[in-house]
Amino acid sequence: MKITFITGAASGLGAEFARLYAQDNNNLLLVDIDQSGLETIKQELQNAYPNIVVDTFVADLSKTEELKRAFAYTVEKDYFVNNLVNSAGFGDRCDFKDMDIDKQLAMTNVNCNAVLYFTRVFLDNMLAHDEGHIINVSSIAAFMPAPYMCTYHATKSFVLLLGEAVSYEIRKTNVKLLTLCPGPFLSKFVELAHNDYTFTKIKPITAAKVAQIGYKKSLAGKSLHVIGGGNRLTIFATRFVPRKMVTSVSAKNMKKGD
Known about the structure:
Helix content: 40-55%
Order of helices and strands: EHEHEHEHEHEEHHEHEHH
Number of helices: 10
Low-confidence stretches: 190-194
Number of domains: 1
CATH class: Alpha Beta
Number of strands: 9
Mean pLDDT: 90
CATH superfamily: NAD(P)-binding Rossmann-like Domain
Largest sheet: 7 strands, parallel
């Protein structure tokens, strides 16, 4: 059975992607650490779209064994993951010297290793069937360093560079990989990352809007999309100024009084 595998699906961007795929009659396997949130979105989608399968899988994506367990579940159920959305992720704004190293390692595991793992293991079947769409959620953060939020920005650069390379390698197939780079959008991310200051300087869009744009670009076979004309202009402009200046401006958007 064909199924769409979405991480971080209990809320926010992942849940919005789930609604879009369900609307187009795709069966779903929703993955998150939040069991209660998964049950809520599952019930919503089953009520709205009774003809599709909505399955859930609770997993802590910061742990390698949990990634493997999620993949093994798809094999056990004989699911063909023809759509993959890696939207799980989190950040943390804090001076590097004060950061909780265990939290930083968990962040790199969720933001990087989970994306790498699922992209790799589900790609085989997609290539064998010569069909499939992958959306890896990166960020405009991928294009610049950010003092006080350095690990998060570094993880999103990983997702960006990985996606660009893999999409090139599979360019002659009907499997498409989109690296999606939104700016700030409304979700639980701000509270969990302690990054409310940045949101006072940049007006965020809704998670639903990000998902709609990403879904449309994925279906069109795009390999990279930065959401927002202003964001694209900012990223382009960084090519023409010293890296030290880019870092300084980024820092001022992260911490008041820097």
